[in-house]
């Protein structure tokens, strides 16, 4: 069976929406996982897509208290 992608919208108000599309299912992990097919997006009010820059392999990491999608050095 294949991996499930997740669409995660976060809505602050009718004019502030951002979120992520993950390359695989979410899971609790001490290490980053996923692929460069994950991306972040915002509507403020126009669509902006933030694709993987290729600078690192920090895609998805989460536990029972937090979720990180993308990260810098």
From TrEMBL:
Read off the InterPro entries from this record. TLDc_dom
Q: Report which superkingdom the organism of origin falls in.
A: Eukaryota
Q: Which residue ranges traverse the bilayer?
A: none
Annotated TLDc domain residues: 1-73
Q: Which residues form the signal peptide?
A: 1-22
Query: According to its record, what are the GO cellular component terms?
Result: mitochondrion; nucleus
- State what protein this is by name: Oxidation resistance protein 1
Q: Which organism is it from?
A: Diaphorina citri
Tell me the name of the encoding gene. Answer: LOC113472166
